Amino acid sequence: MSVPAAPGLPRLLELGELERLMQGRKRIYVRYSEGPEHDEHERSIDAESGLELPGLSVNPLDPQRWWKRPLAEWLARQISQYRHLAERNPDRFAWVLSGREVGRGPDCEPLVADVVPLARLGTTLLDEALDLYQERFDAGRGPED
Known about the structure:
30% of the residues lie in helices and 25% in strands. It has helices at 15-22, 36-39, 71-81, 83-88, 123-136; strands at residues 11-12, 28-33, 56-57, 59-60, 93-104, 110-121. A hairpin with a 5-residue loop joins strand 5 (93-104) and strand 6.
């Protein structure tokens, strides 16, 4: 798996910028890590088994066919789902990439290889996404609630 270094990765500051970046593209993902340069030399590991995964763990940004709500709401939900990873480790940040799916991880998340870094998500975008997620969704509600 190769992850090209990405110095000068553009920083997106608003959800609208991410929506425009996605236009005409498929297989776009968000990843919370120490960045493309770090991931070039690291592999995703299943923490419980210790096994190396065949690709990087990511969260898909392409909406599913059944999604009938605005794209911004899907993006807000997907971005906010794993924000805690950066909150627990200040060296991690959210970045957007494209790549080839090579499997599924232990939480059924896509694993990607042949990564192409596209952008870094700025704090203002992450805050906007979280605000939208909390405003439009029953955040954290499960089937037993």
